[in-house]
Design goal:
single chain; alpha/beta; OB fold (Dihydrolipoamide Acetyltransferase, E2P); Rossmann fold; five-stranded antiparallel sheet; 8 helices
Length: about 270
């Protein structure tokens, strides 16, 4: 039995749709998801109160928790759902999304229920306006303790580089392509010790893109031969087997940075004497 008709009759049960080409996933509030053989544009036409925040995402505005305004004029904003998901809001859709939410749904900002038009839209600390630049390192990891360790190490040893840490890599290529090339990060550290499939997919997409493939990507992995092989097959610039202990982990990150930031010559990055 098709799930499309009953789903469209009870839109309040739907949190969002995510899809591409002629298929999309429908995500229900109770955590269930089902695959539909329909393009997301069809569902958008059938659910006029739902909001298209990105070419691949259609959300139920009733479950929007907050918005982050774009931290840079060439970057995307973000929308947070009360189910925990975070999606980019594309630049060209930002104004339309804001206007639609003004009409359809009040948004909770800083814990206060108010109309979006009067809300001080929160800017996420995850990516600041100065974020990706010619003197920055982008670290993608969900290991908060190791992220702090890495940020402290680089801040001490390579103070001329800013570290930007994000947890999700799903929309990383889209976010980077909204920047001018001179603002691309100098180096990407992609932690595939967890969320391995997502990380490898992101790596492949970065290296298949004619604009983004010049950014060096170091894949951080667990010590398994298959994962190391997969990383190089997907064109990682380096694949590094990461130790478990904090001291050895820090030492490994230091050696990676020493190689990529001091020994290797990268386009647009001045040579350092030390």
């Amino acid at each position: 039995m098709s799930v499309i008709k009953p789903a469209l009759q009870r839109p309040e049960l739907i949190a969002y749709f995510s899809g591409a080409n002629n298929y999309c996933w429908i995500y229900f509030r109770n955590g269930e998801k089902k695959l539909l053989a329909k393009p997301i544009s069809y569902l958008e036409s059938q659910l006029p109160n739902f909001i298209r925040v990105h070419k691949t995402v259609l959300i139920n505005p009733a479950y929007v928790k907050s918005l982050d305004q774009p931290p840079h004029k060439k970057m995307a904003g973000k929308v947070y759902l009360d189910t925990g998901e975070v999606f980019p809001v594309s630049r060209r859709r930002w104004s339309q999304v804001v206007e639609s939410l003004q009409v359809l749904h009040p948004v909770r900002v800083n814990g206060i229920e108010q109309q979006l038009s009067s809300a001080p839209v929160r800017v996420s600390p995850e990516i600041q306006p100065s974020g990706f630049s010619a003197a920055s390192i982008l670290l993608i990891t969900d290991d908060k303790e190791k992220a702090i360790l890495t940020e402290q190490l680089i801040g001490k040893k390579w103070a001329d580089y800013q570290v930007n840490t994000v947890q999700s890599s799903v929309f990383l290529p889209e976010l980077l392509k909204q920047l001018p090339e001179q603002d691309y990060p100098t180096l990407i550290l992609l932690d595939a010790r967890t969320l391995t499939t997502d990380r490898l997919t992101t790596l492949q997409r970065l290296k298949e893109d004619s604009q983004l493939n010049r950014i060096p990507v170091v894949l951080l992995v667990l010590p398994t031969d298959q994962l190391i092989s997969n990383g190089y097959q997907k064109q990682a610039n380096s694949v590094v087997s990461m130790p478990i202990g904090y001291t050895l982990f820090e030492h490994t990150i230091e050696r990676i940075c020493q190689f990529w930031l001091r020994i290797v010559r990268l386009p647009g990055v001045p040579m350092h004497s030390n």
